[in-house]
Design a protein that fits this description.
The complex is a heterodimer. By secondary structure, chain A is α/β, with parallel strands linked by helices. Chain A has eight helices and ten strands. In chain A, the strands form three sheets. In chain A, strands 5-4-3-10-9 form a five-stranded parallel β-sheet. Chain A has a three-stranded parallel β-sheet with strand order 6-7-8. In chain A, strand 6, helix 3 and strand 7 form a beta-alpha-beta unit. Chain A is globular. Chain B is 41% helix and 14% strand. Chain B has 15 helices and eleven strands. In chain B, helix 14 links the parallel strand 9 and strand 10. The longest helix of chain B has 18 residues. The two termini of chain B are 31 Å apart. Classes of the chains: A alpha/beta, B alpha/beta.
């Protein structure tokens, strides 16, 4: 059975997206991609040193991998739009992850500005993947604005705290007809697996891999966890119950059993 | 309302007592917390916390790696001018020091920019003395226009400006401001700043705020460690940074930890800040402000800089000269202070890589 994730004109086999930030050496990136199986990688335009022969991060990213430039550093929609256009002009393709952050203490995204940037860029032919707090109304506006996917955070960026916003992400998965990609906050493979079991379309993981003692092994582990979670979702997990139900005390009488009061 | 008002409300004698009263139990309690408030920060700077430095360092390391990764951003200072109208007792540019004075011509700025850019650096910090008529806003704008062709991030470390002047320089192409209060102790400030525009404590203290209002992207503040009791200075630097982050959440706030260095006309007024003290300041600051950049310059020695990579620092200068035109013109005139780590950019890069860290040359993209 083919289980491909369709975004823009791409059909992706891997549902793990990764990033390029925070590595002790960019030379690790090819191995991270290989071991994790990731087919999409995000990179901040602010970090791209296109003039440099030695320090150009694009040299470490295989051409087969879909580049997802991000607008890190944008404080409002205008800046995000400008960064996106600079990235495209620099030859990074037409995918863009919108990150509009006007709060440097918690690094929480600005939903309103993100919607505005999405609208402009989608009309301009970009495949737009906006990063948001998991808010249903914002997500609905993003659908209307032409987003290609919605990327809610599991916990504040870089926090490695896991799926703290679980219930809100679940609502997005249920209500939004776009791929929901959990981005930010995932600290362990088990948490990525959990997001996938819930029905997330993909996970984007960077800090948890880059800050591991052995980033390559962690990348491999995330690749497997995402795959396992996806397969579990497709298999249909059995409904869990918080208490054991041996019989049907309330509706048993319908089958001819006596009610409890008569016992 | 400005930071001056916040700062004035804090009673210094009371602070001294609170440092002395902090107990090991207080430190242990703070180290168990996931977010650190102002009182906790004070405890981490106290003498009691000196016995918990390793534990603090471990936490600071993990926080830094999570927030910034294993990376160190490189920049270098470029001195445009050493003309100065101030008499600051700790500075080599002091008007009463008989040193050769020079301001780069625009051609010299370009030559200097080329020489620095050839080392791969993309972040530059431009400096002048405090001589408004010579190093004027118009002169600075001309320099900045040249520098935008060579660098992706331009910071200024110059005399304190008015809000509209900051806005003019932002329009010209700067994205960051570095300004040190030198000392947060107003009484001592008077003693060290004898003459010139810099004698205005409040105008300087509120300068970062004016730049934030003008729309600057990042500010870097600090105290010249050694002028007053370092615990006090570190505490005030932290709450100043926290104040800026709180009121200007869109701005990236950093702190620098400059220690006194020998310079021309050296006065004997400084107190000693040991390596251990500096490490305590760094790790306490990291725990208090997990997202703040921390800068360590070539004022510090090679050995010290090699050893603090994992303690919270995020930004280092490399290949520095504190002389006007130090990268292209004469090496004989007098700099602002003596640097201690003389390694080139290439040597620093090699060292950072050998320690498993990534030297970052570019972390900003001009979008104007």
């Amino acid at each position: 059975m083919d289980d491909l994730l369709e975004i823009g004109d791409k059909k992706l086999e891997s549902r793990l997206f990764t990033g390029t930030g925070k590595y002790g050496s960019d030379a690790l990136i090819p191995e991270i991609i290989k071991e994790s199986g990731a087919q999409v990688i995000t990179v901040a335009l602010r970090r791209m040193n296109l003039d440099s022969e030695e320090d150009n991060i694009l040299d470490y990213i295989p051409k087969t991998v879909q580049l997802l430039p991000n607008t890190s550093g944008a404080r409002n929609s205008n800046e995000a739009v400008r960064i996106a256009r600079l990235a495209r002009a620099a030859g990074c393709g037409n995918w863009i992850k919108i990150e509009v952050i006007s709060d440097n203490k918690y690094l929480l995204p600005d939903g309103y500005e993100t919607i505005r940037a999405t609208e402009v860029l989608a009309k301009d032919g970009f495949v737009v993947l906006p990063y948001i707090s998991p808010d249903l109304m914002v997500a609905r506006d993003l659908v209307a604005a032409g987003a290609a996917a919605v990327m809610p955070l599991g916990a504040p960026i870089g926090s490695n705290r896991g799926l703290k916003t679980r219930e809100l992400i679940r609502i997005l998965i249920d209500e939004i007809d776009l791929p929901i990609i959990v981005d930010a906050g995932i600290g362990k493979p088990s948490q990525a697996c959990e997001a996938m079991e819930m029905g997330a379309a993909a996970c984007l993981v960077n800090t948890a891999i880059a800050s591991a003692e052995n980033p390559v092994l962690m990348a491999k582990s995330f690749g497997r966890a995402v795959k396992a979670g996806r397969e579990a979702y497709l298999a249909g997990t059995g409904a869990a119950s918080s208490h054991a139900v041996a019989s049907s005390p309330l509706t048993g009488f319908l089958n001819g059993n006596e009610s409890q009061e008569d016992n | 309302m400005s930071f001056y008002d916040t700062c004035s409300r804090i009673q210094k004698p009371d602070l001294g007592k609170r440092f002395a009263c902090a107990s090991p139990e207080d430190v242990k309690r703070v180290l168990r917390k996931s977010s650190i408030d102002e009182n906790d920060f004070l405890i981490l700077l106290s003498p009691a916390a000196e016995f918990f430095l390793e534990e603090m360092a471990q936490k600071a390391h993990h926080l830094t790696v999570r927030q910034f990764g294993k990376t160190i951003l490189f920049y270098t200072p470029m001195y445009l001018s050493n003309f100065c109208t101030n008499q600051c007792l700790y500075c080599g540019f002091n008007i009463s020091n008989r040193i050769p004075r020079k301001q780069l011509t625009l051609d010299e700025v370009e030559a200097e920019a080329k020489a620095i850019a050839s080392t791969g650096l993309k972040h530059i910090l431009i400096l002048t003395g405090d001589a408004r008529k010579i190093s004027s806003i118009d002169y600075l704008k001309d320099c900045i226009r040249i520098l935008t062709r060579f660098f992706s991030s331009i910071s200024i470390e110059i005399y304190a400006l008015e809000k509209l002047e900051y806005a003019e320089l932002i329009d010209a192409g700067i994205d960051a401001l570095t300004i040190y209060q030198e000392t947060y102790n107003q009484r001592l400030y008077k003693k060290f700043h004898i003459k010139g525009p810099k004698t205005d404590y409040r105008f300087r203290l509120d300068a970062p705020e004016r730049a934030c209002i003008a729309g600057i992207r990042s500010v870097n503040i600090g105290a010249l460690l050694g002028l007053d009791d370092w615990r006090m200075e570190a505490f005030f630097t932290g709450i100043h940074a926290d104040y800026l982050q709180r009121f200007f959440p869109e701005v990236e706030v950093s702190i620098s930890l400059p220690r006194m260095r020998p310079h021309a006309g050296d006065s004997q007024t400084k107190s000693i800040v040991s390596d251990k003290n500096l490490v305590q300041i760094m790790v306490a600051s990291r725990l208090f402000m997990p997202r703040a950049g921390i800068t360590i310059s070539t004022r510090e020695s090679e050995v010290f800089r090699n050893n603090i990579l994992r303690l919270g620092v995020t930004k280092m200068s490399a290949g520095s000269s504190t002389k006007v035109g130090g990268h292209t013109i004469s090496e004989n005139d007098t700099g602002q202070f003596d640097i201690c780590d003389h390694r080139t950019v290439a040597e620093m890069k090699k060292l950072i890589i050998s320690r498993g860290y990534q030297p970052v040359f570019k972390d900003w993209q001009p979008i104007l």
